Amino acid sequence: MKKMLSHALLLSSILLFSACANGSTSNSSSTLLSETKAITTDTTSGASVQEYTDPSQLKEEYDVIIIGSGGAGMSAAIQAKDAGANPVVFEKMPIAGGNTLKASAGMNASQTTFQKSQGIDDSNDLFFEETLKGGGGTNDQELLRYFVDHSSDAIDWLDSLGIKLDNLTTTGGMSEKRTHRPTDGSAVGEYLVDGLLRNIHEREIPLFVNANVTKINQTNNTIEGINLTINGEEKTIKSKTVIVATGGFGADMEMVIENKPELKGYVTTNQEGSTGDGIKMIQELGGQTVDLDQIQIHPTVDQTKSLLITEAVRGEGAILVNQNGERFFNEMETRDKVSEAIIAQPEQSAYLIFDAGVKERVKAIDFYEKQGLTISENSPETLAKAINTPDKNLTETLESWNQAVADKKDSAFHRETAMENDLSTGPFYAIKIAPGIHHTMGGIKINTNAQVINTENKEIPGLYAAGELTGRLHGNNRIGGNAVADIIIFGRQAGNQAASFIK
Ligand code: ADP
């Protein structure tokens, strides 16, 4: 975990530095940003607390308190500010970004301007149907309807903030190219967090880190604010409305095992702040939880560093082979099914196999290479030797896969998407993977206004929740690219609703 954190710290420094270096900040940037500039020139020190609002500036009261600085929390803050409120963001970790920082594949959306300009004929109804199918039909259909209908608008909103997601790919379970990525095909999380933070700074929205919220205060069904520990000091801060955006509980192994005992022993891809705090605090106020046992394991996680290998690697053409060098499943099936198929192999692991073309199209692979996760060889035969797989098998697997791509027909496993390019350009690559705990799909019950629902099915006035801590949008299997869409769409909604609540 320590390793993950220091990596994230470093990443954040680099990100903020590049945000400054490319001149993408406006003249109205607060002094916070100039402090950022000065500090991040020293990337070895990691992200310093001074990038964020100084604890001495903490006030006793704010219009809207937002707990958590992932994509949901920051979207809510920007939207609340633009709707005329004065929000504050509290983050318990030393840096902003949460699990959002690690999001890789992209953001799903339908009927977008970028799809239209690239000739992709998609519809909100198809997005709805495929997400419902992927989620085993158990999704909250009202939330899902709101989600698909507001997805295109969310892409435009991000674009208006200088966050352009115009490079399209596919994830498992989706038949259209609706996963929106940064122009250069890089991982979405870092780019998104960088852009949202830049907008937070430009609007001079206070964002405190090392600020652990421990309780939401409520008297007579009225929200009164929160308690937090900041720099070791306990404080009570007042507000009439609170937005909880604390993410999931994938890093709290006790909570994971309590809800799904069979996951004991799995590695987690989550950052260490994802401990279900928001769910627990809302439960204390009588909030309702749904589907806490729906915990997604992601099929392609490097087990040495618990690092997730983005679905875009398969989306851009990679195949999966077992230790025998043979394909064993449709790689573009939904995450639950692919994970199950990997676990069914004798080694309970597999290799992602791809070529230089895939590497060129998925920038994240450069990062995996730097992390020492890729094995590369000039030919399929030597790659087979390097991963101790019968060389004939791997060569034959690649030959028959390339034939399937040429024929546009995968008779062996009926894969239908991500078959635009074959795997024939050396060097050839392998990454060893196995499933890991990734996303908690259950959580707090909300309505389409992002209001928290209590155990009597009534809204709790002034209390909003958005992002991974909420439940049932994804049903029993989340589609890759739908979490980023969730945090932006419902983060915005929570920010807007909280701002109108105080008017
Ligand atoms: P989402 O994708 O829903 O936005 P993230 O995991 O990206 O969720 O972000 C949630 C953020 O909330 C993380 O940065 C996490 O550290 C932070 N967080 C979790 N619990 C607390 C808490 N008790 N107080 C303040 N911040 C918290």
Spatial separation of the terminal alpha carbons: 43 Å
Uncertain stretches of 5 or more adjacent residues:
1-50
Average pLDDT level: 90
**CATH architecture descriptor name of one domain:** Alpha-Beta Complex
Based on CA atoms alone, the radius of gyration comes out at 22 Å
Strand content: 15-25%
User: Which structural class fits the helix and strand makeup?
Assistant: alpha+beta
Q: How many separate helices?
A: 17
Gross morphology? elongated
Helical percentage: 25-40%
Query: Under the CATH scheme, which class of one domain?
Result: Alpha Beta
Strand count: 20
> In order across it, which strands form the biggest sheet?
6-2-1-10-20-19
List the ligand species: adenosine-5'-diphosphate
CATH superfamily of one domain: Succinate dehydrogenase/fumarate reductase flavoprotein, catalytic domain
| Biggest sheet features | 6 strands, mixed
Describe this structure in words.
By secondary structure, the protein is α+β, with helices and mostly antiparallel strands. The chain has a domain at 299-437: Flavocytochrome C3, Chain A, domain 1, CATH 3.90.700. The chain is 35% helix and 19% strand. It has a 6-stranded mixed beta sheet with strand order 6-2-1-10-20-19, with helices on one face. Strands 12, 13, 14, 15, 16 and 17 form a 6-stranded antiparallel beta sheet that branches. Strand 19 (451-453) and strand 20 (459-465) form a beta hairpin. The protein is elongated. It binds adenosine-5'-diphosphate (ADP). Residues 67-73, 90-93, 98-100, 212-213, 245-247, 273-274, 277, 467-468, 487 line the site of adenosine-5'-diphosphate.
